[in-house]
Every structure is written in structure tokens, then in C-alpha cells.
Amino acid sequence: MANNFNKFRQDAVKRELPNSDDEEEAAQLAEDGDICENVVTEFPFQFNLKDEVAISLQQDYVLSLGADTLFTRLAVGLSNNAVQIHDINPAGSSISNHYNLMDNGEGSKVSICGLRFLDDTPNLLLVGSTDGPVRLFDLRTSAEQARYEYKTQSFDVPESITSFDSNANGRIICCGTEQYMSNTFLLFFDVRTRKQMGAFFESHEKDVTSVRFHKSNPDLLCSGSVDGLINIFDIKEPDEDEALQNTINTESSVYRLNWHKNVYEKDIISCITSTNDFKSYECGEGDEVASFERPEIVTGIRRKNPANFNLINAHNMTDNSIFLLAGTNHKEGEILRSVGVMKNKLQPLANFTGNKQIVRDSLFDAKRNILFTGGECGFITLWTSDTVPETIKTSGKMKVKTKSNKRTPY
């Protein structure tokens, strides 16, 4: 399902481009470049490739990355449903000592849809794959400890999942599914008892693409879907109607969600859409905080052609400001840059020199200002910089716009 949705995301971008027949599309892709004469002056911070590891001799690529709280261990999910574990040295300057945790071999038809370390230690890892179960591994022994699969006689539930997450205290797992028999499910499991807890199935109409628990509140959950809705739940409530706190209509297909905080310490949800747009919303009222369409972000990274653009992730800095990591498909994805999200505009932030692949996932260690990326050529890359930003300079505090995106799905 992860591969299918990524294909959907690429097709969605293509549908928005004018004159998309093969010859004109090829011409569009070929015509790209910087809109500035000197990239160094445009991007105040330069990140360099510090270490890089090839994950396979086959044509496998990186779908997912996961790291423990202290960034001492890196989990890598591959397109062939394999999982590799790598150590990160204490200085954050190299990746080493890898071994295979799961390896389904060449020709596997399933893929990894998420990796989460269960608690603050680097020992317990949850692995989600599109063939259905979420598996719990103890990395001290590399042994599988449990499987979380939903089984019920009340209604049919799809075997495959599309995304999952564990909550802040490591006690609950939530899995999102594809649409099945006109229903889409959020499935809940108790980690300790390994039992299913229940399911929500009325709040989304199409495939769930992103499930994210709040970083510190174990009861707060947001989910996003191809139907364009972001739903916010308080899962301590007894049923779905009472649990649903807010619904935000992004008017697009949701690809990736993340939690942030603004300068007033209010919870913010960021959304990357399947068409490479960026939106963020205030959690409580659902008001729009920021919205940048693909061409605006392309200009932000100082490139010409939106047809090549790929918005990868939204990351938090130490002061809770947000930056976007973005790249292009031009020349095997050699362009990788970041922009800071300001009140009403995007600020060029960092240029990454030496990228060799189209990046599919990224992790950022804000305390040490190091970035990990993985992508379609099968590399895990560690990026560092001698001079790095501690904050994104903004002109005044970020204010919430008055545009409302609330919608009740019932």
C-alpha cells in the first residue's frame, strides 16, 4: 500500500501539471535549474555529507526511518519488507554496525509502512508492514516478541494496514487501514496485554495515510486520509462520536502529518499533501496557520520547475520553529534543500551538498542539528554542518489566520 499511495501521489502531481503528454512532460522535467546566481548566498547554512551507507546490493530503496529518543540507533525499512538496524556513534558523526532484523528476501510483495521505537530506550522496536500485523522486536535479542492483529466476528477488517503509531507512554498502538467494504478503520491495541481494544470506522471515507499520536499527551491522536480530512481524537473517551474532537478539511489528499507547537505553546498539526503542498492548523479550533502551495515552496528552495519538486518532511527545531525539507527529481535528486516556515513566507535555510538520490524519508536531531535521509537509490545519509541555525528568525510572533477548515463528517 505504501508503494501504491506513493504512485498515487506522483500521479496527483502530474494531473495538476498542464500539457502532460509524454513529450511535453519530458521537456518540462529536463528544463530545470536554480533561479538564483549564487546558491551559497541564498542559503545561509550549508550541510555536508558526513557519512553514507548503502543498504542493499539489489534495487531496494528506503521507505521508512525510525530512531530512538537519543538518536543512538537507526531503524531502516526497505521496499522489500526488510528492516535493518544501524548504530549511530555518540558524536553523531557516523553510522555503523548494521544487521538485518527482518528479511523477506527478493520478490516480497509487501513493504514497510512505519517504524517506531516503543519507549525512550533503543531496545524495543515496532515494525508495521502492509501485510497486516504490527510486530514488536526486542533488539537486544533480535527476537520477535509480539504481533498485533485485529480479528473480530462483528465486521470485516482489511488484513493490510497503511500507517501506525504508538502513543507517548508506549501503551497503545493505533493502525490505519485502506478502504475495505466501504469502511476505513482505525484499529487500537493494548501493547502490554497484546489485545485489541476497539476500532473507529465512521470518521474517514478513504484510505488512512497518516496516524500520529501527540508527542507528550498519550490520549491525543490525529489521523489523515485520502479523503482530505484530518481528524483529531481524544482516545480516552468511550466511543468514536465522543472521541472525535475536531475535523479539519484540507481540501486535498493527506500524505504526512506531524505535531508541532507555536510561540504560544499551542499544538499545531502540519500536513504535507499528495500534491506536495504544505498546510498547518491550530489543533484546538482547526484554524489555518500557514498554507504554501507547491510552486511557492519551489520558489522557496530557489528552483524553477514544480514538475520535479518533492516535499519530503516537516521538522521541528529546538525553539519549535518548523522547517521543510524538499528536493527535486532532477538528475537523480541531486537537489536537497530546506526552508524555514515563517508567518507569511518561506525563508531559504540550508543547502545539502552531495545528495545522490530522491529522498523518501528523513529524521532530524534538533539537539545536535544532524539530519538523516533515506531514498530511492538505497542510501542512508548523515548530514552535518559546521555552522547551523539554532532558530529561524521571524518578524514578530506567528498569528493564527481566521480561515476555518472545520467540517463535521456526519
Automatic annotation (TrEMBL):
Keywords: Repeat, WD repeat. The keyword Repeat applies. The keyword Repeat applies. Residues 8-18 have a biased composition (Basic and acidic residues). WD repeats lie at residues 201-243. Gene3D superfamilies: YVTN repeat-like/Quinoprotein amine dehydrogenase. Residues 1-21 are annotated as: Disordered. Pfam families: WD40 (PF00400). This is WD repeat-containing protein 89.
